[in-house]
Amino acid sequence: MNINNEDRINFMGKIEQLSGQKVLSCYQCGKCSAGCPVASAMDILPNQIIRLVQLGDEDVLNCKAIWFCASCFVCASRCPKDIDISKIAESLRSIKLRKVFDYLSIPKIPSEVLAEIPQQGLISSFRKFTSY
Amino acid sequence: MSTKAKNLDNSARKTATFLGIELKELSQWTCCGTVFPLITDNLMPLIAPARILANAEKQGNKLVTICAFCYNVLKRTNVTLKKDRQKKEKISQFLKDEGKEFSGKIQVIHLLELLRDGVGFENIKNKVKKELSSLKIAPYYGCQLLRPAQELQLDDPENPQIMESFLKSISCEVIDTPYKTECCGSYLSVSSEDAALDCSYRILASAIKNGAEAISVSCPLCYFNLDQNQKKIKEKISGFIEIPIFYFTELLSIALGINLGKEIFDLHFVDPRPLFMSKNLI
Hints:
- Chain A is mostly helical.
- Chain A has helices at residues 5-19, 31-35, 46-54, 74-78, 85-97, 111-116, 119-129.
- Chain A has two domains: 5-101, Fumarate Reductase Iron-sulfur Protein, Chain B, domain 2 (Orthogonal Bundle), CATH 1.10.1060; 103-132, no CATH class.
- Chain A has seven helices and no strands.
- By secondary structure, chain B is of the alpha/beta class.
- Chain B folds into two domains: 6-110, no CATH class; 121-278, 3-Layer(aba) Sandwich (Rossmann fold), CATH 3.40.50.11810.
- Chain B has helices at 6-18, 47-59, 68-83, 85-97, 111-119, 121-126, 149-152, 162-169, 188-191, 193-209, 220-236, 248-256, 263-266, 273-278; strands at residues 62-65, 107-110, 136-139, 173-174, 214-217, 245-247.
C-alpha cells in the first residue's frame, strides 16, 4: 500500500504527541509482545502496532488488539528503549473514543460479572473502553 | 472495599489495630479514578487523585492504601505532580477553586510497605499465635503494585520479595511461581471475558503445578479474577482442581489469632474451609 510520507509523519506525530513516546526509537525487538499477557488474543501484536504507527498506517486504529490491553505495564517495563507501549495503545484508543465510539457495550456485560465484580473493574473498563 | 472486598477491608483494619497501627480513614474521600491517565493532553483524570492527596496532606504525612489500584493511581499522581511543574500548576488552579492545595509532601505507601517498614516483619513474627507452617502459599502480586517500577519503587518488578517475606513472617511455606507478577486479566473480565479467563487460568495452573495450596493476593480485582473465574474455568477445563484465594490480610488475621467471623469464608467463591480443616487450622 502507498502511504504519503507527510500523512505518515502527521499520524505518527499525533500518536507521539498524545502518548509522549518516541515511536521511532522502537527497533522491533519484540520484548513487549513476548511479555504481553493477552498477546494470544490479539489480532496484531504490540510490536506490530508500533510498527504500523511508524509506517503511518492509520488502519491500525481499526485493529482489535488495542482493546485487549489491560494496562499491566509489562511492555513498558521490559522495553529496552524505554517506550511505554501501553501509552501508545491508549492514544490509539482515545482517537477512536473521541469520535463517540464505545468499544464496550455496557448492556452486554454478563449479569453475574456486573453483580460481583469490584467497582474498580467496572470503572476502569468504562474509562478505557467507552467514549468520553 | 466495604461492599465488594469486605474480607480485605475487615482483615486489614483488624490486623492494623492489633499491630498498633492507627489507620485513620481519610475524611471526604472520593474514588481515585481507578486508572492513571496514560495520555498527555487531558489532565482531568488527575484532579480526583490530586484532590485526595491534597486532603490527605492536611490529615497526616502518610497515605496508606489497601487497594492496589488506588496505590498505583495515587502514587503515580504524587510522583507526576511533584516532577512536572506545568501539570502541578494547572491542577493547582482547579484545586484552588475548591480551597485546596497540593504541595507533594504526602507519602503514598501500600499496607504491605507499612507492615514491612512501620511494624517490621520480625515484630509480626513475634506476635504470631497460630502457626501456618503447614500451609503452602503462592504469593501473587499482579501488576498495579509493582509497575511502572521507576514511579512506584515498591519492589523489584520482575522478582519481588515483599510478599514472600511477609508470608514467611507468618510462618507460611512460600511457593514461588513464574506467573506471580503476570496480569490476572484485570478489567478485561468486563470487556473480553475469555482473555481474562486465560490470564487467570495461567496463574492458577502455575501455582497448582508448583505445589501451592492457596494463593495470597493484595488487590480486590485480582481476588475477583482468581477466585470467581475458577467457576468458569472448571466448566471449560476438565480435571481443574479449585484452589482458595486469600487476601494477605486474611492470612495475617488467622496467624495473629484474630477472629474475623465465620461469614468471612462465605465471601470466598472457592471455600477455604476444607483446606483449613485438613490442616487442623479450624
